[in-house]
Each structure stands twice: as C-alpha cells, then as structure tokens.
TrEMBL record:
This is glutathione transferase. Gene3D superfamilies: 1.20.1050.10, Glutaredoxin. Residues 88-221 form the GST C-terminal domain. It comes from Eucalyptus grandis (Flooded gum). Belongs to the GST superfamily. Tau family.
C-alpha cells in the first residue's frame, strides 16, 4: 500500500510516546513531526485536532485519529502483526477497563502527588498509594499487565513505568518505591529493558531538566495559591472586624437618637399637660 502515515507528537509526552511505541512494535514506518505544544501549536495540529488541540495526532492517508488509546486501537486493527490488544473479547474488555483506570484515575493523582505541596500533597500521596496498590495487585503472578509480553495496558501504563520515576528523581518525591510496590517496580524495570522501549525512551537528562523547571513552576503555583488564601483569610478577618464595629456604632447612634426623641416627646407632652392646668 503506498501509505502516508504521519505522527504529530511531543518528545516529553507519554501520550505521544504510546503511539510511537505501538508503531515501532508493529514495525510500521511513519513520519514524525515535533510539536511545540507549550508555545506554538502548528496549523496542522489545530486543523487535525480542532476539538482538543493536543498531541498525539496520527494522520493516516490524510485522515486524522486522536486520543492515544483510540490511536492504539486503530493501529492494532490496521496492522495485524504483533497484536497489542488480546484477541479474547473478555480480555480485551478488561484491557480497556485498566487503560481507563490508568488514564482517568492514576495519571492526575500521581502527577499531583509528585508536584503539589503541604496538605494537598499528603492527600494526593495517600490517594496515589491506594491506586498503586490496585495496580500492584493486578500484576500478581504476571510479568507484564498483558501477560508474558508488553501489551495495551503496559503501553498505557508507560507513565508509571518511566515518567513517575524520572519525576520523583527530579522533585525528590517517593510515591512509587520498591519497598512498598515491589511488583510494580520490577515491572517498570522489565518494561524499560524491552529492546523496543529501551531504544526509544525519551533522554533522561533532558527529562530531568525539563521536569525540574515544570515542578518549580507548579510548586510555586501551589505556594502562591496557599499564600493567596492566607492573605484572603487575614483580609476577611479585618473586614469582619470593621463590620462588627460599624454595626455596634450604628446601634449606639441609633439608640441614642431614639432616646433623644423620646426625651423630646416626654418634655413636649409634659409641657402640654402643664399648660392645660394653667
Ligand atoms: N487524552 C489525550 C491526552 C493528550 C495530551 O494531554 N497531550 C498533551 C501533551 S502531554 C498536549 O498536547 N497538551 C497541549 C495542551 O494541553 O494544550 C490522549 O490520550 O491523547
């Protein structure tokens, strides 16, 4: 087939990387185009992913496919060698279930547990531990989530297998540790050592430097957010104090006024009464 296959991606994106790995596992040739997602998205990205404007976008013979898990399924159905998803319908359904769990539950929490600070970090850390324990349980008696070889769930779990380790190193966090999650750590090692993965991992030094900057930005965001709330709290106390004082002052002026009016009326009434007797 004289096919045209192009991937719009970003070097540090676990989502783009999923697609690259799937294409490489299948041995499919493609053209790669690096997107500057932070500063300058290309017209092609905006045109082919107008809904989310995000990478990855796979363009096959002019037709775009977006969302990494959708792209993985498309690749698996289009190029049949080295199947990524299991053939058995139940196992396929379960693979999709875990993929959803990874993207919807784990990714955000793991990211937050590595980058937030204070109470927010503690909370995210606890949540991340629970999620990682669930994944640890899923690996019991297996080398990979997919069984003996890397499959759909392993590719979807790439951020646990590589990204979390690098982010932890960059920011000094310890969410995923060998002591607490031995099966997951062993899996991450096996995963990274698979030839197709090892040869295509994003460079660690570049990654560390990138995440240090990102983490500093995010940490200062959380710090500013906390300082903002402290400032707002103090400001609110002050406003409350002024309101209470004003309230009592008004009551006092008002009651003095009433008292004055009452005295005035009493004097008038008495004057009137006395003049009747004269
Ligand atoms: N759910 C999407 C997520 C894609 C995504 O978040 N891509 C990021 C890069 S890691 C992106 O392009 N961000 C650009 C933006 O948010 O504007 C997928 O699975 O493909």
């Amino acid at each position: 087939m004289g096919e045209e296959l192009k991937l719009l991606g970003a070097w540090g994106s676990p989502f783009s990387w999923r697609v690259e790995i799937a294409l490489k596992m299948k041995g499919v040739k493609y053209e790669y185009s690096e997107e500057d997602i932070l500063h300058n998205k290309s017209p092609a990205l905006l045109k082919f992913n107008p809904v989310h404007k995000k990478v990855p976008v796979l363009i096959h013979n002019g037709k775009p496919i977006v969302e990494s898990h959708v792209i993985l399924e498309y690749i698996d159905e289009t190029w049949k060698d080295n199947l990524i998803l299991p053939r058995d319908p139940y196992k396929r359904a379960m693979a999709r279930f875990w993929a959803k769990f990874l993207d919807e539950k784990c990714m955000q929490t793991l990211w937050k547990s590595c980058t937030s600070i204070g109470a927010e970090r503690e909370k995210a850390h606890e949540e991340a531990r629970l999620l990682l324990s669930t994944l640890e349980g899923e690996l019991k008696g297996k080398k990979f989530f997919g069984g003996e070889t890397v499959g759909f769930v392993d590719i979807m779990a790439n951020f646990v297998g590589y990204w979390v380790g690098v982010i932890q190193e960059a920011v000094g966090a310890d969410v995923l540790t060998e002591g607490e999650f031995p099966l997951l750590c062993k899996w991450a090692e096996e995963f990274q050592n698979r030839p197709v993965i090892k040869e295509n991992l994003p460079p660690k030094d570049k990654f560390l430097a990138f995440f240090k900057v990102q983490a500093e930005m995010i940490t200062s965001f959380y710090k500013n957010k906390r300082e903002f709330w402290v400032f707002l709290g103090l400001w609110f106390d002050w406003v409350l104090c002024v309101c209470v004082m004003s309230f009592f002052a008004v009551i006092k002026v008002y009651s003095n006024g009433i008292l004055g009016v009452c005295c005035f009326l009493i004097v008038i009434v008495r004057d009137n009464d006395e003049s009747q007797f004269n």
